[in-house]
Amino acid sequence: MRAALPTSLKPFAAGARSQQRGAAPLPPAARLGGSGYGGGSYGGSDRDRRLILPGQEAGGNSGAGRLVIPGQRGPPGGGGAGGLAGAGAPPVQQNFRPPPGFMDAVAPTEVAPEVAGMSPEEMLNRLRSLTGHWHQLAKLLPALQRAGFDGPAIEEATGLERKIQNVWGTAAQVYESIKTSGLLLSGALEHFDADGEYLLYELRFLSIQQRAPAAAYIAQHNLSPHESMVLARAIKEHERRNGRREGFADTPADVLAYKFYRDAMECRRKEDVETCARKGLAVAESDEARAKLSELLEEQEGPSYALPAAILTTLRLARDELGFRPLAVAGDLQTATADQVLAAPKVASEGVFGNFRVPAHGAGYEWVALPNWSVLTLVGHPVALMIENCADVARIRGASSAKTEDELKRLSGQGVVVVDISGESAAVQPSQYYLTADAYGRLDLAPGGEAAGAARVLGPVLFLARPPSRDTPSATTSELMSL
């Protein structure tokens, strides 16, 4: 029984059978490898019988047959696969650098000699009983992984946690790199046989030239894992900041001294600076490092001041928090007279905080402080008149166009009318309100068209100020100056 051909291959099979029976050959565009498909003849060479990818040229150049990756440049001269623009440009330089010690690790396919002849069960038994030092047992882990045991399986079979497996694997690479380099004496290397994996694990980011001196210092001073971590980070900081320029050598002792020196430079309290500097002097090895730390201590000498028990709150004011203008209150708009308004004093402020002094004849007046708007700073003599209820003043009701009960309710409440009585104002403008007085001195707010017929015009009304409202947003300055 003959297997059915896929639909895509039936035309080619039909063409082959027709040629065998002596039928007319298929047209060139229908033959596999014909000119219509970008290749050579059907019976051409192996180089011609290749897969033509989208964007690949049909010519037989040296770049044909390559897989074109999006964004990949072709060979110089514009030929080859893809035909991309700018193919003659030099390749982009890669900035990736492997971490220190990347090539020091044992290749995954390399088996330690002492483990090569052991069966998986023997290796698991050694891990269960912890027979040997940790760096010897760590060599069993890659062999077990190649035998099909992953981390969870090893943990289940031996009880060795995956966290410890990871520490062993990394620390064993550090151990072997130090041992292979020969830069550390065997006596110092034996210090890491017992619980040394946590000490060497912290040196994983250091290079070979940095690991051996650091390990010797750890063994000599019997450092803890935390102290080993501090030393490893201090070495990287010394390398990054180039501590040699400040007089600290590359030795682990001077590297730690440089770490304490940097800590002292970042401290604010005198006691903390002295503590860090003395820690650095205790471990410094070179004369230059000791001199640098001694200078830091000498700078801290002098009288010691205890921190006060009380707290002094210091505020930096903003510009809009400083400006205010004190205005003399000439009385109530409905009861005051023209003479009282014209007799109101004025003050001038000065200094960065706007200090002012009340004149002698103004001691008996009430004063109101308003924001120091530009309209107040540009006039000569502003005076304030109080209003007990703005809804009771007919002129204010007419200017606000309040008609309904709700509008009158919002209009009710106190207010301050500010008038400029300097007498320097220009001619009366119809679009502005003015403070006028009749023949008996009674005050009134009149628009410019009616102010000309009044007995006396005291000055233009600058604005009506209202207190903040609980129900509606407070009016803006432009809204206040609608009068």
Describe this structure in words.
This protein has 483 residues and is of the alpha+beta class. Among the domains are: 26-55, no CATH class; 103-241, Arc Repressor Mutant, subunit A (Orthogonal Bundle), CATH 1.10.10; 322-480, Umud Fragment, subunit A. The chain contains 21 helices and nine strands. It has a seven-stranded mixed sheet. The longest helix has 20 residues, at 162-181. 24% of the residues are buried.
How would you sum up the global shape?
Answer: elongated
Taking strands numbered 1, 2, ... along the chain, how are they ordered across the largest sheet?
Answer: 4-1-5-6-9-7-8
Structural class: alpha+beta
What distance lies between the first and last C-alpha atoms, to the nearest angstrom? 105 Å
Strand elements, count: 9
- Estimate the strand proportion: 5-15%
* Number of separate helices: 21
Helical proportion, percent range: 25-40%
